[in-house]
Amino acid sequence: TNSYSKFALAAQAAGITSSQTRGIFEATSKAIVATGISSDAGGRAFLALEQALSKGTLQAEEVKKQFAGNLPSGFTMFAQAAYRAGQTANASIGTFMKTMKKGTIDSKKTILELGKVMEENFGKAFEGASDNVERNINRMGNTWDIFLLKLAEFGLMDAVNTAVKGITAELQSLTLQLTEMIDTVEGRMIV
Questions:
Q1: What gap in Å lies between CA 97 and CA 92, rounded to an integer?
Q2: What are phi and psi of 106, to 5 degrees?
Q3: What's the CA gap between 122 and 127, in Å, rounded?
Q4: pLDDT of residue 74
Q5: What is the CA radius of gyration of the chain?
Q6: Residues in Cβ contact with 104 at an 8 Å cutoff, skipping those fewer than 6 apart
Q7: In this structure, are residues 78 and 124 in contact, taking their beta carbons and an 8 Å threshold?
């Protein structure tokens, strides 16, 4: 996936530091894993954060439909984050909705707090929910995105592209060999 790359670009444009970006991304990833939502739903949650950062203020479209519509407790967490960021008078959903309709909730301040809220809510649950194949593959994809972003920062993408092509060719060759072995074993079992 390239969720991290896109999110990192939006966060950087909004003036969020690399370490803050990584923290928000990791907290969101933990929330996704802990709740067991699909990687597609997780991608839509990240898209909501990207779009909110790009707009500068929170809008119901991103918060309600994309983020909270895909991540359980998303709306409540956003309301808590807006309050903690000093954007609303209290953490109630009603106050959050009214203030959001006015278009005055700063997305950068709120999303910075949202990362902390998600870490508090899902950090521990993530530990217990995170050890299965699908989640480990998603985690690997997220780590790969972070790795590519770092390589791009140092101008090393051409070297990585060459290495990835080689690795892909080797995996294809191994897959073919494995398939042939399985076919051979299955052929012997039938006889």
A1: 9
A2: -70, 120
A3: 9
A4: 92
A5: 21
A6: 57, 87
A7: no
What tens digit of pLDDT does each residue of 119-156 get? Answer: 998 877 666 555 566 667 766 776 777 777 777 777 77
CB 118 within 8 A of CB 30: yes
Is the model's pLDDT at 164 over the cut of 90?
no
SS (H, E, C) 72-88: CCHHHHHHHHHHHCCCC
Report residue 57: phi and psi, to 5°.
Answer: -130, 155
How would you label 129-154 residue by residue, b for 16+ Cβ within 10 Å and e otherwise?
eeeeeebeebeeebeebbebbeeeee
8 Å CB contact between 57 and 106: yes
Predicted pLDDT of residue 88: 94
Gap between the Cα atoms of 41 and 101, Å rounded: 25
Contacts of 167 (CB under 8 A, 6+ apart): none
Please, which residues have CB within 8 angstroms of residue 13's CB and are 6 or more apart in sequence? 53, 54
Q: Determine which helix (DSSP H) or strand (DSSP E) holds 172, and give its type and residue range.
A: helix 157-190
Per the structure block, which two tokens stand in for 186? 């299955």
Asked whether 72 and 33 are in contact (CB, 8 A), the reply is: no
Q: Which residues pair with 106 in a beta bridge?
A: 57
- Each as own residue / partner, the long-range contacts of residues 88-91 (CB below 8 Å, 24 or more positions apart, any chain) are none
